[in-house]
Design goal:
Helix 1 packs across helix 2 and helix 1 packs antiparallel against helix 4. Helix 7 links the parallel strand 3 and strand 4. The protein is flat and about 80 Å long. The longest helix has 36 residues. It is of the alpha/beta class and 470 residues long. A 4-stranded parallel sheet has the order 2-1-3-4. Strands 5-6 form a two-stranded antiparallel ribbon. It has a two-stranded parallel ribbon with strand order 7-8. The protein folds into 3 domains: 136 residues, no CATH class; 108 residues, Rossmann fold, CATH 3.40.50.20; 193 residues, no CATH class.
Length: 470
C-alpha cells in the first residue's frame, strides 16, 4: 500500500471513529433528556452501554455500506445527507427489531429510539458539514486538474468564477493540449504546462491529484488513453466535463451535450405503470392536504380579483391557458388571473419581470405564488405533478424546439407546480433564459427521485414564505 493510500485509510478511520463518538454521545444525551422529561427509570449501566454500543455499531456499518467513508467519495452535500439519512434509518430499523426481541429485557421509553435517531441525523449532518467546510482531515477539498484549456474547458471559468462555486474541490489548473481553441479558451485561470505522456503519472502522484477532468476540444488523436487508463487503475477519478459540471452545478450543459454521453450516462430512468400509479396517488394526496389548508386564501383571492375588476368586463377570476405536458400532450393550465383581461389582445407574448399588463393584485399573488394554487385541479386530473419542469405554451415550445437542442426532452416527465429550474435560475422570459432553465430541467429529468422532490418542495416553501418568487 502506497503512502497516499495509507494516509487516505487513516483519514477515513479517524472520521469513522469521530462519527461513532458523535452517535454514542447523542444516544447517551437523549437517554438522559427523555428520562428527565418522562420520569422513566434509567436501565443499568451495562444494559445502556450494550444498547448504545450496538446502535452505534449498526449506524457505522450502514454508513460503510453506503460509502460514507470512501476516501474518493465524490458526492454533493445533498448526496451526503441522503447517505446519512439511509445509514441511520437502517440502524434504527434493525435496532427496533432487536429491541422488541433479543433486547426486550432492556426497559427504555418508547420515544427514546426515534428521538435519538432523528437527533443523530441532525448531528451527523452538522458534523460532516463543518468537517467538509473547514477542510479537516483533508475531506471536502478534492484536488483536480483539467486536461484542456480551450473553448470547452472555458465553461468552468465562465460558470464557476466564484469561490463558493468551487466549494468541493481545489483546481490546480488547466493543461493545454493540441487541438484546443485557445482564442475562445481559458483567459484568467492558471495554465499547467505539462505533457500528458509517461511522466504524467509522476505529476499526478507528486501533486496528490484526486481527479482528472477531460475538457479538451479535440479528443481524437490527442487524448493518451493508456495514460488515463493507468490513472484510473491507480484510483484517480477520470471525469468527463459534462459529468463534472452536472455534479458540481446541478445542471446539464446542453450546448456541450453529445448523443453518446446521453446513451452511456446514468439516470434518465424509464417510467413504469407501478411508478406512475404511486406518483399519481402521492401527488393527489399532497394536493388534497394543501387544498385543505389553502382554500380560504383561494376564496379570498378570487373575491379580491373580482372586485378589483371595476371596469365591468365580467372577466373570469381564473385564467386558462394551453400548455405542453407529458410526451407533448396539450392541456389547459388553470391559474388565478394576474393580468388585465385584454393582456393578449395582440397575441401571445413572453411575460417580463416588470410587465405592465400585471394588475396590482396580480403582482402580490405572483410574488407569493398564490396564482398557482388553482393548478391543484391539474394535479387531481393527472396532468401535472407537484414537482417537475414548468409547462410552457405550445407557441413558444415550437420556437424553442427549433432553436435549443434537446429542448423536447423536458417533456419526458410530467410538468410541475415547482421545479429545479425555478429554484436555481432567476425569472426570465426569452430563448436565452429558456436555454439556461433547460440545463436545470434536464438535470431533474435525469436525476428525478423522491429525495430530490422533497428537497425542491422544502426550498419552494422557503421561497413562498419569504416572498422570493417572481
Amino acid at each position: 500500500m502506497s503512502f497516499v493510500n495509507r494516509k487516505e485509510v487513516r483519514r477515513s478511520n479517524i472520521l469513522m471513529i469521530l462519527e461513532a463518538s458523535v452517535v454514542a454521545y447523542i444516544l447517551y444525551l437523549t437517554l438522559g433528556i427523555v428520562s428527565e422529561i418522562t420520569g422513566s427509570s434509567t436501565p443499568q449501566v451495562g444494559d445502556v452501554s450494550l444498547y448504545i454500543g450496538l446502535f452505534t455499531f449498526l449506524v457505522i456499518v450502514s454508513a460503510l455500506s453506503v460509502g460514507l467513508y470512501e476516501s474518493k467519495l465524490r458526492e454533493t452535500f445533498r448526496g451526503i445527507i441522503r447517505r446519512i439519512f439511509v445509514s441511520v434509518a437502517l440502524g434504527y430499523f434493525v435496532m427496533e427489531i432487536l429491541g422488541n426481541t433479543v433486547l426486550g429485557y432492556i426497559d427504555l421509553h418508547q420515544y427514546f429510539l426515534p428521538i435519538a435517531a432523528g437527533l443523530c441525523i441532525v448531528a451527523l449532518v452538522i458534523f460532516r458539514y463543518f468537517i467538509n467546510r473547514l477542510g479537516l482531515l483533508g475531506l471536502g477539498q478534492t484536488k483536480i486538474v483539467v486536461i484542456g484549456a480551450g473553448e470547452r474547458a472555458s465553461i468552468i471559468e465562465k460558470r464557476m468564477r466564484r469561490e463558493v462555486d468551487r466549494f468541493g474541490f481545489e483546481l490546480l489548473g488547466f493543461i493545454p493540449i493540441p487541438g484546443d481553441n485557445r482564442e475562445e479558451g481559458i483567459q484568467n485561470e492558471k495554465l499547467v504546462h505539462v505533457k500528458v505522456d509517461e511522466n504524467f503519472r509522476n505529476f499526478i502522484t507528486d501533486n496528490d491529484i484526486d481527479e482528472v477532468v477531460i475538457a479538451c476540444d479535440q479528443r481524437r488523436g490527442t487524448l493518451p488513453v493508456e495514460i488515463l487508463f493507468d490513472c484510473r487503475l491507480r484510483g484517480v477519478e477520470v471525469t468527463d466535463l459534462l459529468d463534472f459540471m452536472e455534479r458540481e452545478t446541478g445542471q446539464i450543459v446542453v450546448n456541450l451535450m453529445y448523443p453518446s454521453w446521453v446513451i452511456y450516462s446514468n439516470g434518465f430512468n424509464s417510467q413504469n405503470y407501478l411508478r406512475d400509479a404511486l406518483d399519481y396517488g402521492m401527488n393527489s394526496l399532497l394536493a388534497f392536504i394543501v387544498l385543505m389548508f389553502t382554500w380560504p386564501f383561494m376564496l379570498l383571492t378570487a373575491l379580491i380579483i373580482y372586485f378589483e375588476d371595476n371596469n365591468g368586463t365580467k372577466a373570469s377570476v381564473f385564467y386558462k391557458q394551453e400548455r405542453v405536458g407529458l410526451n407533448g400532450k396539450l392541456f389547459n393550465i388553470i391559474k388565478f388571473r394576474s393580468m388585465r383581461p385584454d393582456a393578449e389582445k395582440d397575441g401571445a407574448k413572453w411575460a417580463t419581470t416588470n410587465d405592465d399588463r400585471v394588475t396590482k393584485v396580480g403582482q402580490f399573488i405572483r410574488k407569493y405564488r398564490i396564482d398557482e394554487l388553482p393548478q391543484l385541479l391539474n394535479v387531481f386530473r393527472g396532468e401535472m405533478s407537484f414537482i417537475g419542469p414548468r409547462p410552457e405554451r405550445p407557441q413558444f415550445v415550437e420556437q424553442l424546439i427549433r432553436e435549443i437542442p434537446y429542448y423536447n426532452q423536458r417533456h419526458n416527465v410530467k410538468p410541475g407546480l415547482a421545479g429545479w429550474a425555478q429554484l436555481n435560475y432567476p425569472y426570465g422570459a426569452s430563448v436565452e433564459d429558456s436555454m439556461e432553465k433547460l440545463k436545470f430541467d434536464l438535470y431533474y429529468v435525469k436525476h428525478q427521485s423522491l429525495m430530490l422532490d422533497i428537497l425542491i418542495l422544502i426550498r419552494t416553501v422557503e421561497v413562498v414564505l419569504f416572498g422570493k418568487g417572481r
